[in-house]
Amino acid sequence: xxAASSTGATEITRRLTxxxxxxxxxxxxxxxxxxxxxxxxxxxxxxxxxxxxxxRLAARHDLTVVPRGAGTKIDWGAAPARVDIxxxxxxxxGIGHQPTGSPVAEVGAGTPLRAVxxxxxxxxxxxxxxxxxxxxxxxxxxxxxxxxxxxxxxGTACEQLVGLRWLRADGELLSAGIGGVDRVTTTPPVGLDxxxxxxxxxxxxxxxxxxxxxxxALPASRVWISRPVWTPLEVHDLIRAVLAxxxxxxxxxxxxPAAGSRARRPISAARAAALANHPSMTGRRLGPTPARDGAxxxxxxxxxxxxxxxxxxxRLVALVTGDATVDHSPPEWWRRYPFAPGDTALRVEVPISDxxxxxxxxxxxxxxxxxxxxxxxxxxxxxxLPGALPAERVASILAAVRGVLLARRGRCVVLSAPPAVRxxxxxxxxxxxxxxxxxxxxxxxxxxRLAPGRLPGGL
Length: 459
Fold this sequence. Notes:
Elements: H1 2-7, H2 9-20, E1 25-27, E2 33-34, E3 37-43, H3 48-60, E4 65-68, E5 83-88, E6 104-108, H4 113-121, E7 125-126, H5 138-144, H6 151-154, E8 161-167, E9 173-177, H7 192-196, E10 207-214, E11 216-217, E12 221-229, H8 232-244, E13 251-256, H9 269-276, E14 296-304, H10 306-320, E15 325-327, E16 344-349, H11 355-366, E17 372-375, E18 380-385, H12 391-406, E19 411-416, H13 419-424, H14 434-444
Parallel strand pairs: 3-5, 4-5
Antiparallel strand pairs: 1-3, 2-3, 6-10, 7-11, 8-9, 8-10, 12-14, 12-15, 13-14, 13-17, 16-18, 16-19, 17-18
Helix pairs in contact: 2-3, 8-11, 11-12
């Protein structure tokens, strides 16, 4: 940081203001953190070229840059080694013009996803994306590789990409695939496989500018069939039956709340208010969904034409028996994480045939039922450990669960955690993609100026 020190913080601020405009560059405040690491400056560039100029300024003065969208998942992942400039993508927004009925949509990275869906809905279309973070931007969803219930039929946002544009650490604008909101000169397109590595990179490989994704017609009818469940093994048997019946579900989601109230560190009224206002809590209540007499719920979403959806729903109700209900609105917990700010948030990925074993392993390691929620039809679920658990206890739970998952080709990732836990545990486990990420980092950010340390392996 010698170059920045010799130039002076005020001069860096002046130069950022010159790039972004007077209202859009400032010294960072108390809320400008990334996984607990405070930033020095905040810059909000007005377009791709301004964002590129911010990156070039950072390169000249040996400053690090971390992109930020709406901040709904800013606490996810590893803390960066340093945050000099927080590059806010809020002005890298917009939806490109497409003909009516176009099968794709071009969207600026800083565009809130709900604004995209509202715009497309006026023409009878949607992006088949429904991540649980209500206020998230498209760039934030891609950077965190976040997905919701619709991933069962349509895949994640990354899997729906047909085009991507992003900035390298040196400010060079790259494109992959097709499309792009901003028509500015770029280098020749590169492979979309390289671009897809940015999904889940938390800004460590590039600054997303825009993405082109598949769009589709809104379904004419949607119904949710919900059934109480009591054990992970019962869930396993039901999912096998639903998938074998070829009912073409759009989503199969599970909610297994912990029995009774979870132990939670006592907090003050001021702390409770701060948590409630955290970006990740937009549109949801603080705290877990109350347990319903110890029962969980398996819910299946069916989409399509009204007549055939009704026919499939009748078949599904007959198949699952029990106290199944049919509704035209989702369960209260649908598209909601089981954790809140301050918890240790886990993501478990395992073949669906072994999901029950993973849930039992988590319960056994924790010594009590743990709230679990997510896409049971894919074996991708989230779980919450109370923030009051000591770091060494969380570490032992992780070790036990990962030991079980290793033999089942699964993994457990810590999405977010209190600082003491984050420092004491390996949040990633042993991801197999580290060699590819290392090669991509060397290619796109050889000087490690973009979110250094955010990627697996400390990259």
